[in-house]
Amino acid sequence: SQQGEEDPQALSIQEGENATMNCSYKTSINNLQWYRQNSGRGLVHLILIRSNEREKHSGRLRVTLDTSKKSSSLLITASRAADTASYFCATDAGAQKLVFGQGTRLTINP
Amino acid sequence: DAGITQSPRHKVTETGTPVTLRCHQTENHRYMYWYRQDPGHGLRLIHYSYGVKDTDKGEVSDGYSVSRSKTEDFLLTLESATSSQTSVYFCAISSGLAGATSETQYFGPGTRLLVL
Q: What part of A 23-62 touches B (C-beta under 8 Å)?
């Protein structure tokens, strides 16, 4: 079963615009992580936010976590063509396991 | 990049044949994972290992077995491949230093398997 569900499934924006992706989950978590996957490649870790954190930044990435709503969002500011990828949220399933959502496919148009 | 390699990177095989995929790491991480990725399903955990000879099942373990005889190697075996096992397989590792709380996982490049 998949706990994290991303929304939207696909997103297409113009270069320079901001992209926002959302993740909802069902049970309580210790942390939530976001990963990026370029076409044909393995996943790359972007950011981890713990359950006692509400917001975290890394470069052009901003992640928020609302444990009361069981949701998280990933904001990519000033998007670039290189940001074209699929983005996955992953929730802590205990015992060092993660449960991944189905991902959001982000396309940045020049 | 984390030192994770997968072999082979691509494989075509026939239904009913055994297939073994190898994951090799140079990070000395305790935890290793095998996932499969299919359209519409995201990544699903097949098996994972929390140490040499210590393995456990994931969400979609039927039809798969694993072995870990050395810290650096984690093998995934399809005893008798079926067309439903056509997928992209990813290996991942994590250090496990944070105890029970999940940490960052580092992924290999993937193996594309086609079962005819």
A: 30-31, 33, 40-45, 48
Phi, psi of A103 (to 5 degrees): 95, 160
Nearest Cα neighbor of A105 from A3, A17, A21, A14 is: A21
Task: Report the alpha-carbon angle B90-B25-B100, nearest 5.
Answer: 75
List, for residues A53-92, the tens digit of each pLDDT value: 999 999 999 999 999 999 999 999 999 999 999 999 999 8
Say yes or no for a CB contact (<8 Å) between B106 and A45. yes
Task: Give the number of other CB atoms < 10 A from CB of residue B41.
Answer: 14
β-strands B4-7, A19-24 pairing = unpaired
Q: SS3 of B68, please?
A: strand
